[in-house]
C-alpha cells in the first residue's frame, strides 16, 4: 500500500502519531521538502520503517530524503535550539556527512538537476545566482513556456529599479508605500490582460509589506475607471512572504524587495533586509514559472553612461547586488524615471 501524509502526522510516539500509522510499517519512507523539516520531525517520520520483527526500525527498511540545500532551512527562533544544531535539517546533516567521508558508497547522494517549473530566462537567472548552472529544464516545452501572447509586452523577467525614490518610502515597520503602489499597478495590468488571479502571486520579505500590499490591492485605483470586477480579482491574488511561498509556484510572480540596499545606516540602525539571505532570495526567484517581475531599489547612483558601465554595483558581500548585476547585464533592468514616480505620487495623493 502507498500512504501519503505529512511528516508531522507520521512522527512522534504511538500516542501522537496518526491512528492509521500506529501499527503500520513500510518498506520505504520518502520524505519530501526534507531540507526544510525540523530534525525531530524528520526522525519521527522514519519510525514508520518496517523491521523483521515488526517492532523496531533497522536496516531492513529504506528511507529517501528529497530537498534543496540552496533553499530555506527549518525555521527555529530559539537561540539555544540553534546553538544545539536544531536549525539544521536531517537532510543537511546527512548531506554534509556524505561529502566529508569519501568512504560513503556512491549513489547515496543523487543530484536531481532536471526541473519542471521555470522557463529558460528565469532558470538562467537562478542558475547563475545559486545553482552554478547545474539546473536544466526537463524539455523544450518547459523551457519555452510563456504567458499568452497578449501578455508578452512585459519580458519573462524584469527588474524595475526605484533608485530615483531611494529609501524614502520605507518606514520603521519595513513597509514601502511606493513599491506597494507600483506592485498594485502591475497586478491590475496583468489581470486586465487576461491572467487569472489564481495564476498570479505577490511576494514580499516582510509581513508588514504583505499587509500593506493587501490593503492597496483592496482599494480602487484613484483617478481611473477601474471596474469592481477588476478590484475583486486583485483581492483574490495571493500575497505572502517568501517563507510561506516555499514549495509552491505561480505562472507569474511580482516580487517587492521593500528595503533599499543603500539604506545601511538609518536612525534605527542597520536595515534588516531578509533577502540578503541567499537561500531566501533563491526561494523568491524560483516561485515563478513564466514571468518574474521584481520591484526594488538597487541603491546605486545613476550613471551618465550606464549602458557601457559594467561596474555598477559594489558586490562586497551583498547577495542583492549580485542579483542586480545579473539583471543589468542581461538587459532585464529598467530604471524607473522621475516621471514614473510622479505618476505614482499622483495616485497616492488622490
UniProtKB/TrEMBL annotation:
Query: InterPro entries attached here?
Result: DNA2/NAM7-like (IPR045055), DNA2/NAM7-like_C (IPR041679), DNA2/NAM7_AAA_11 (IPR041677), P-loop_NTPase (IPR027417), SF1_C_Upf1 (IPR047187)
The subcellular localization recorded is: Nucleus; Chromosome
User: The organism sits in which domain of life?
Assistant: Eukaryota
Q: Which UniProt keywords apply?
A: 4Fe-4S, ATP-binding, Chromosome, DNA damage, DNA repair, DNA replication, DNA-binding, Helicase, Hydrolase, Iron, Iron-sulfur, Metal-binding, Multifunctional enzyme, Nuclease, Nucleotide-binding, Nucleus
The reaction(s) this protein catalyses: ATP + H2O = ADP + phosphate + H(+)
The terms under GO molecular function for this entry are:
4 iron, 4 sulfur cluster binding; 5'-flap endonuclease activity; ATP binding; DNA binding; metal ion binding; single-stranded DNA helicase activity
- A cellular component annotation (GO) from this entry: chromosome
Q: Which Gene3D superfamilies does the record cross-reference, listed alphabetically?
A: P-loop containing nucleotide triphosphate hydrolases
Instruction: Give the top-level enzyme category.
Output: hydrolase
Chain ranges of the DNA2/NAM7 helicase helicase domain = 14-78
List, for all copies, the residue spans of the domain called DNA2/NAM7 helicase-like C-terminal.
86-297
- EC numbers, comma separated: 3.1.-.-, 3.6.4.12
Q: Report the main location listed first in the record.
A: nucleus
Q: Which GO BP terms apply?
A: DNA repair; DNA replication, Okazaki fragment processing; replication fork reversal
Return the similarity comment.
Answer: Belongs to the DNA2/NAM7 helicase family.
Its biological purpose is as follows: Key enzyme involved in DNA replication and DNA repair. Involved in Okazaki fragments processing by cleaving long flaps that escape FEN1: flaps that are longer than 27 nucleotides are coated by replication protein A complex (RPA), leading to recruit DNA2 which cleaves the flap until it is too short to bind RPA and becomes a substrate for FEN1. Also involved in 5'-end resection of DNA during double-strand break (DSB) repair by mediating the cleavage of 5'-ssDNA.
According to UniProt, the name of this protein is DNA replication ATP-dependent helicase/nuclease
Amino acid at each position: 500500500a502507498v500512504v501519503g501524509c505529512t511528516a508531522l502526522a507520521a512522527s512522534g510516539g504511538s500516542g501522537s502519531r496518526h491512528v492509521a500509522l500506529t501499527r503500520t510499517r513500510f518498506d520505504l519512507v520518502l520524505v519530501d521538502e526534507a531540507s526544510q523539516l525540523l530534525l525531530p520531525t524528520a526522525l519521527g517520520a522514519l519510525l514508520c520503517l518496517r523491521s523483521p520483527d515488526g517492532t523496531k526500525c533497522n536496516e531492513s527498511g529504506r528511507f529517501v530524503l528529497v530537498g534543496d540545500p540552496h533553499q530555506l532551512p527549518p525555521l527555529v527562533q530559539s537561540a539555544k535550539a540553534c546553538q544545539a544544531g536544531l536549525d539544521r535539517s536531517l537532510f543537511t546533516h546527512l548531506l554534509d556527512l556524505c561529502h566529508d567521508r569519501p568512504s560513503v558508497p556512491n549513489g547515496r547522494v543523487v543530484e536531481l538537476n532536471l526541473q519542471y517549473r521555470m522557463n529558460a530566462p528565469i532558470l538562467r537567472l537562478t542558475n547563475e545566482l545559486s545553482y552554478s548552472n547545474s539546473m536544466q529544464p526537463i524539455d523544450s516545452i518547459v523551457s519555452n513556456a510563456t504567458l499568452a501572447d497578449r501578455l508578452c509586452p512585459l519580458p519573462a523577467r524584469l527588474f524595475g529599479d526605484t533608485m530615483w525614490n531611494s529609501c524614502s518610502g520605507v518606514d520603521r515597520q519595513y513597509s514601502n508605500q511606493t513599491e506597494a503602489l507600483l506592485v498594485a499597478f502591475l497586478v491590475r495590468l496583468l489581470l486586465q490582460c487576461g491572467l487569472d488571479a489564481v495564476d498570479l502571486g505577490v511576494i514580499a520579505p516582510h509581513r508588514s509589506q504583505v499587509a500593506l500590499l493587501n490593503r492597496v490591492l483592496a482599494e480602487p485605483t484613484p483617478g481611473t475607471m477601474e471596474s469592481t470586477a477588476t478590484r475583486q480579482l486583485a483581492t483574490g491574488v495571493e500575497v505572502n512572504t517568501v517563507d510561506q511561498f516555499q514549495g509552491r509556484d505561480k505562472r507569474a510572480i511580482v516580487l517587492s524587495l521593500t528595503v533599499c540596499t543603500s539604506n545601511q545606516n538609518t536612525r534605527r540602525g542597520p536595515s534588516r533586509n531578509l533577502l540578503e539571505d541567499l537561500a531566501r532570495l533563491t526561494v523568491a526567484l524560483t516561485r515563478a514559472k513564466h514571468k518574474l517581475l521584481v520591484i526594488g531599489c538597487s541603491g546605486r547612483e545613476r550613471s551618465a553612461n550606464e549602458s557601457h558601465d559594467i561596474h555598477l554595483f559594489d558586490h562586497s558581500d551583498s547577495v542583492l547586488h549580485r542579483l542586480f548585476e545579473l539583471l543589468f547585464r542581461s538587459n532585464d533592468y529598467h530604471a524607473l524615471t522621475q516621471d514614473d514616480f510622479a505618476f505614482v505620487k499622483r495616485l497616492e495623493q488622490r
